[in-house]
């Protein structure tokens, strides 16, 4: 079903205040996860699922994003002159990944507003939204499954993760009904970051969406919600009622590995986990980690 969905939208306009002062002059999306910026993992995921037309919603001081996915003729010429083909390939990899476009969000009015800024580029076709803070392990399928479900059900699809009920206040929470597939649920309600102890389930919305273009029509009349921002969750809540033939909203339950690079502690964990799993770094890193951990005071 991926032949009819080719566009991915990546909102990347946030200020990254949780990582100050590192993000004072560098976009949070460019923070390295081992040896690649976090945003490259997200673009690679989109491309792997067949989405080669990528639109990034950016803001001020995000020029580094554009530079990363652009050619660097002087660097390429230097590496070629030195015969360093391995490094040249890694440099060209990000340049050749996808057809990447950019549009400024302008006013920081929330995720829903950022998605709405993609309307002119996307047109009247279904499209994917990938949040840059979430890295999905390349070994675990998610986006491809969501694209299949979108084509099968002609609905909007969101990614869900079962989390500890005590942490539900950190996420958008989904009310769901079971379907004939244990990994797919019908979404009947959504609440953005519910008060502790009030969530009706432990299904949390994570940063992957495959949306029908009707979401733009809904977002255009969605009033600012929590935090004074236009919440994508509020628009999806309206669409979950199958308003005006939107097809409703379904959730694909993800049971694989996800890394949250928007949180300091989870970012550190992501770097360690991904590095430990690599063939070039893992054999030396894993024994060192075991030795280091054995000497830690856990109290």
UniProtKB/TrEMBL annotation:
Listed EC numbers: 2.7.7.9
Give the residue range of the signal peptide: none
EC category name: transferase
Annotated ranges, domain Nucleotidyl transferase: 7-273
Pfam families tied to this protein = NTP_transferase
What highest taxon heads this organism's lineage?
Bacteria
Q: Which reaction does it catalyse?
A: alpha-D-glucose 1-phosphate + UTP + H(+) = UDP-alpha-D-glucose + diphosphate
For this UniProt entry, the molecular function terms from Gene Ontology, in alphabetical order, are:
UTP:glucose-1-phosphate uridylyltransferase activity
- Which keywords annotate this record? Nucleotidyltransferase, Transferase
Q: Does the keyword Transmembrane helix apply?
A: no
Q: Which residues lie in coiled coils?
A: none
Per its UniProt record, what InterPro entries does this chain match?
GalU_uridylyltTrfase_bac/arc, NTP_transferase_dom, Nucleotide-diphossugar_trans
Q: Which family does it belong to?
A: Belongs to the UDPGP type 2 family.
Q: Which PANTHER family match?
A: UTP--GLUCOSE-1-PHOSPHATE URIDYLYLTRANSFERASE
Name it: UTP--glucose-1-phosphate uridylyltransferase
- Lineage of the species this protein comes from: Bacteria, Bacillati, Actinomycetota, Actinomycetes, Micrococcales
């Amino acid at each position: 079903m991926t032949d009819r969905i080719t566009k991915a939208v990546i909102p990347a306009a946030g200020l990254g205040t949780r990582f100050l002062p590192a993000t004072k002059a560098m976009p949070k999306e460019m923070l390295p996860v081992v040896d690649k910026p976090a945003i490259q993992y997200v673009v690679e995921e989109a491309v792997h699922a067949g989405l080669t037309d990528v639109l990034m919603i950016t803001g001020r001081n995000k020029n580094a994003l554009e530079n990363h996915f652009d050619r660097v003729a002087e660097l390429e010429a230097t590496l070629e002159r030195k015969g360093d083909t391995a490094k040249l390939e890694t440099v060209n990899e990000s340049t050749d990944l996808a057809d990447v476009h950019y549009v400024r969000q302008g006013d920081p009015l929330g995720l829903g507003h950022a998605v709405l800024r993609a309307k002119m580029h996307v047109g009247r076709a279904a499209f994917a939204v990938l949040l840059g803070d979430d890295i999905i392990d390349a070994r675990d399928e998610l986006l491809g499954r969501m694209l299949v479900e979108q084509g099968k059900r002609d609905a909007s699809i969101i990614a869900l993760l079962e989390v500890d009920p005590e942490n539900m206040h950190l996420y958008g929470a989904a009310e769901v009904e079971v379907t004939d597939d244990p990994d797919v649920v019908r979404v009947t309600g959504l609440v953005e970051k519910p008060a502790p102890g009030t969530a009706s389930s432990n299904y949390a919305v994570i940063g992957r969406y495959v949306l029908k273009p009707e979401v733009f029509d809904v977002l255009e009349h969605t009033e600012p919600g929590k935090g004074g921002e236009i919440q994508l969750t509020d628009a999806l809540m309206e669409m979950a009622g199958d308003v005006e033939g939107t097809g409703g909203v379904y959730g694909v339950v993800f049971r694989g590995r996800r890394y949250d690079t928007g949180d300091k502690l989870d970012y550190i964990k992501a770097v360690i986990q991904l590095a430990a799993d690599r063939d070039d770094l893992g054999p030396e890193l894993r024994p060192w980690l075991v030795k280091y951990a054995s000497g830690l005071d856990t109290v």
